[in-house]
Amino acid sequence: MIVRSMAIAAAVALAGASTGLAQDRLGTWDCEPGSAAGLRWILAPGFAQQEMAAGELTTGSGYARVQCELNASGRPKDCIVLMESAAGKGFGAYAAELAGMYKAASKDSAGQPTKGRRVCRAFGVSGKSDGGPTG
Question: What residue range is the signal peptide (predicted)?
């Protein structure tokens, strides 16, 4: 049975050689080093929400990196796909949808408003047949 799961590890493995992105930045919200510093994420999707968003993408593995802007309520919105491991397979739409399920606090750790801040993130899916999630 195929199990749907978030697989940032898969995104790191796939992106390391082909994209030139620093692997340690794929698991962060930074567009540039430090650009998301001080953000406090107060809401993140659970496993069930991740599964729902992944839909039929579990028949294979892939990832996408999106860039979004935080709206007044702290949600990443107006996301654009920066890269997609399997173009046209839906990973970009998945990453944009999943990003929108997160929510940042209205102010960062320095007390600055987060509205309008640009954030980037890679999200991935990996089908796994051993009954357990990956990543």
Answer: 1-22
Q: What is the pLDDT of residues 108-133, one digit of tens each?
A: 999 999 999 999 999 888 765 443 33
As beta bridge partners, residue 41 has 104
Rounded Cα–Cα distance for residues 80 and 8 (Å): 19
For residue 106, give every residue at least 6 positions away whose Cβ sits within 8 Å of its Cβ, in sequence order, or none: 72, 73, 74, 113, 114, 115
Are 33 and 25 spatial neighbours (Cβ–Cβ below 8 Å)? yes
Q: In whole angstroms, give the CA distance from residue 78 to residue 94.
A: 14
From the list 57, 58, 44, the residue with the least C-alpha distance to 98 is 44
Domain assignment of residue 3, yes or no: no
CATH code, domain carrying 74: 3.30.2420.10
Please, what sign has the CA dihedral across residues 102, 31, 87, 6?
negative
